[in-house]
Design goal:
The protein is an alpha/beta fold and about 375 residues long. The protein is built from 11 helices and 12 strands. Bound molecules: nicotinamide-adenine-dinucleotide (NAD).
Length: about 375
């Protein structure tokens, strides 16, 4: 019997979701055997699959059925694949859409912090939009606040406001308010400092303190936490400068922490450094169960063909090991196995280029096999 058991709520969702999550589960079995841990996975419905199932059962149509939410809350971690697809693109008002399941689960699990590692694989440097010499040493952890700021402020539209139209006429006016409380900033920045201590010991706190009051508060809190953590180097970066530095000299960053809207934009910008959507995992953490998922969608254009890249999903498992189970050694072995497979020239079709020999282009399961093989080689005792 394994020394420890973890319960994972697995959410395959739609499109390629079931195909890639199957590889993650096989990986979990391997990790369990190598590290004397048992992972018990329980599939639940979310997204389009949940809409179809609830409708067929005559229950209230939902992209996040109550049973799924209960299972997610009770689990030690949630592993999600992706949701959505053309079948559920009903735009009539009131129609239930798969993405509602995603927003709802993030909210109901109280996830207030999102992590996106940006790691450059040597073997994939050619796929980046930047020249390879700019990518040397790039390894960034983006920590984004997830439940405050502009996206959760007051959104208001006013009609027929005198002077708001063209040439002094009446017109529409819109307001989105941006709010942050000290505790909302503190819990995220503190987390970033703790993460930096386990990495290269450097936090870049991103704000717009020369203009925004929320940013001035953000900076004050960041400085207070920095003074309590003298072993971690902290610097302040204005968001416009940060956007520029991410493409000019990305290797200077270690942990980058910022508020919701800035983080949304900067993490998408930074993801392009890696060159492939199929490689990017993310984690959302909060007061309860954490959720791990690839950054890509359900790729309906390739669903069912057995050619989806399972790496982002497998790297979501790596993050789960690190941040939910404190299994850093196992997480390192998963990351190294992925790197080994890429170094050996194996590719799924999305990663292949003209130089890839045809016999090195693998399907989803074959790529899973290769990563498991490399993981076994790494963990053989
Ligand atoms: P997408 O990420 O699903 O696909 C974009 C492109 O990347 C496609 O050509 C796809 O084939 C390719 N791709 C994505 N993941 C891949 C993988 N693992 N392996 C190989 N190729 C991969 O984005 P989209 O096409 O804009 O959206 C498709 C559906 O996914 C939509 O319904 C959208 O709403 C949904 N979506 C869901 C999430 C989520 O579940 N978190 C995120 C984004 C989009």
């Amino acid at each position: 019997m394994a020394s420890k058991t973890y319960h994972i709520c697995t959410l395959p969702g739609d499109g390629i979701g079931p195909e890639i999550i199957a590889e993650a589960k096989r990986m979990l079995d391997e990790i369990g055997s190598a590290f004397d841990v048992e992972f018990v996975c329980e599939d639940q419905l979310i997204g389009g699959a949940a809409i179809d199932a609830t409708r067929a059962a005559g229950a209230p149509v939902s992209a996040l059925p109550p049973k799924t939410l209960e299972a997610a809350k009770a689990a030690d971690a949630v592993l999600l694949a992706a949701v959505g697809g053309p079948k559920w693109n009903d735009t009539t008002p009131g129609a239930v859409r798969p993405e509602q399941g995603l927003l709802a689960i993030r909210k109901r699990l109280g996830l207030y912090l999102n992590l996106r590692p940006v790691h450059i694989y040597k073997a994939l440097r050619g796929a980046s939009t930047l020249r390879p010499e700019f990518l040397e040493g790039v390894d960034i952890l983006i920590v984004r606040e997830l439940t405050g700021g502009l996206y959760f402020g007051q959104h208001e539209r006013m009609h027929d406001v005198p002077g708001a139209g063209v040439d002094g006429a009446a017109g529409d006016k819109a307001v989105d308010s941006m709010e942050y409380s000290e505790y909302e900033i503190e819990r995220v920045v503190r987390w970033a400092f703790d993460a930096a201590r386990r990495r290269r010991g450097h936090v870049s706190s991103v704000d717009k303190a020369n203009v925004l009051e929320t940013s001035r508060l953000w900076r004050e809190v960041a400085h207070r936490i920095a003074s309590e953590n003298p072993d971690v180097r902290e610097d302040d970066v204005l968001v416009d400068n940060c956007a520029m530095q991410l493409v000019a000299n990305p290797a200077q960053f270690d942990v980058l922490v910022t508020e919701n809207t800035f983080g949304d934009i900067l993490s998408d910008e930074a993801s392009m450094l890696t060159g492939s959507l199929g490689m990017l995992a993310s984690a959302s953490l909060g007061s309860g169960t954490a959720l791990y998922e690839p950054s890509h969608g359900s790729a309906p254009d390739i669903a069912g063909k057995g050619i989806a890249n399972p790496i982002a999903q497998i790297l979501s498992v790596e993050l789960m090991l690190r941040y939910s189970f404190q299994m850093d050694e196992a997480a390192d072995a998963v990351a190294a196995a992925v790197e080994d497979v890429l170094d050996a020239g194996w590719r799924t079709p999305d990663l292949a280029d003209d130089a890839t020999p045809q016999d090195h282009v693998l399907g989803t399961t074959q790529m899973g096999d290769k990563i498991i093989e490399a993981f076994r080689a790494r963990t053989a005792r």
